[in-house]
Amino acid sequence: MESSPQNSPGSPGSPRQKDVNNTLKRFSTFWIGCILFVAFGLASLVLGIGFNKPVVNNIDKVNAKRRAMIKRGVDKSHAGAREKALLSFERVGSHFLNTAPAPDEKPEFVLPGSATQKRKASGGSGIVVPAGFPTVDPDAPVDVAVMEQGKAMFAICSACHGPEGKGMYHINKTGPPLANSEWVTGPVANLIAIQFRGLSGPIEVNGEKYTPVAPMAALPLDNNSIAAVLTYIRNSFGNKASPVTPEQVEAMRGELGKPMLSPADLIPPTAATGSN
Ligand code: HEC
């Protein structure tokens, strides 16, 4: 069936066609379109600037706060973890120290004829004082020439014990003081043994604990030099004790070559303070 020209849209006689041909309508449609376009643009601008941006800013702020919070938490837990790690190191370390058996704890661990066996055989002090060890009168006069020689020898010692015998511990954690040291005025056998074997490990001197960074190495000089330097330190820096003789040093030669001493190996200084 053929449609009538009136009803056919787009045909020259249809209402649409008339609108298209109506200049006024075309003009107003154009402007309405423009206004709608601009309005839409403005609306999206308003929405975009007026609402979206602050929302984005807020999210940024919220995120920044979260990040700061998380960072604080992480920092805190790191700090805590470090403390915990240090604590557990300490715990594990002291556990090992307290539980680990010393290598020579069991007799079967000790090599026959070894220095350790000799030390254990000597009764544990580690220092063997021979039966005929020469004694010296506590009030025996001190030879000035020996003191001079001892002072010259003391140049070696002063590197770690200081020129005034006050020690260098407070400066570089090396030698503890010799002034007012109960070890210096104590048993002579200790002092000679220290020269022959060296000394290592935390030591208490005059009521103060010292943990030097390095042990004192053995300084096995000749009998005269050792006797002189020990006489010098026993009678300087305010110390007063019997002089040390080359014969006493000679009597302790058996110590030479034995392992380094620890303060626990020494004869307790109260045993013979002021003499030998
Ligand atoms: C390289 C540094 C150094 C030199 C050099 C040195 N000593 Fe020591 N001395 C030490 C240290 C460190 C100790 C403590 C050892 C320990 O138990 O850890 C010590 C300990 C001592 C002690 C017993 C602790 C005390 O303070 O009374 C005497 C005694 C001693 N030394 C005497 C001497 C004499 C004498 C000389 C020189 C012939 C000498 N030392 C040279 C570093 C040194």
CATH fold name of the largest domain: Cytochrome Bc1 Complex, Chain D, domain 2
Percentage of residues in DSSP E strands: under 5%
The small-molecule ligands in this entry are: heme C
Count of discrete domains: 2
Summarize the structure.
The chain has 8 helices and 2 strands; from the N terminus they run ααααααββαα.
If you had to describe this structure to a student in words, what would you say it looks like?
- This protein has about 280 residues and is mainly α.
- It has two domains: about 20-100; about 115-270, Orthogonal Bundle (Cytochrome Bc1 Complex, Chain D, domain 2).
- Helix content is about 50%, strand content about 0%.
- The protein has eight helices and two strands.
- It has helices at about 15-20, 25-100, 115-120, 145-160, 170, 190-195, 225-235, 245-250; strands at about 205, 210.
- A two-stranded antiparallel ribbon has the order 1-2.
- Helix 4 packs across helix 7.
- The N and C termini lie far apart (about 145 Å).
- Residues about 1-10 have low confidence and may be disordered.
